[in-house]
Amino acid sequence: MEKQKTVCGNLSVECRGRSGDSRIFLVREGASIVAQIKLGEAFLSATANPISQFDDSERIRGYEAKRQASVFKQSVIGDLRAGMTNVGLRAKVLEVGLPSAIFTRFGNQSMVANALIGDDTGTIQLSLWGEQIESVSVGDVVQIVNGKTLFFKGKKQVRIGKNGSLKVEHQG
Asked: Most CB atoms within 10 A, among 24, 37, 74, 166?
């Protein structure tokens, strides 16, 4: 099995050798190394594929979402998944919730509100902090640059973050 290589499209998996009772595999996408994986002989010889359910895990979906976010510069709401970063999005403000005073984890008091934004593909919550709350109104079209997505209290949400920006393109 050593030095064997399997190719599927632009992806290749090569067995690089043994380490004790395990084998080392190198995964490449084109010329780039994606991962190096150590798998035990018991795992490799199992008749039921123990990895068949692994792609359903939140960790894999989060990784895939982050990888896809770096590929697409402008997203639509229907394509957003929790864990995406560098999200670019253009959407209409449908609702703006009442602001609440909260204490941050650093002990500072701040104001936070959630807005519901939408495009032709769906809707999502947008977390607004401080001055952002007053800058948007229902009917505005906003441009989000370098946002990130996550689940918060069971709902998918977009956050601007310290490296992102929110710009009102058209006032409603």
From this structure: 166
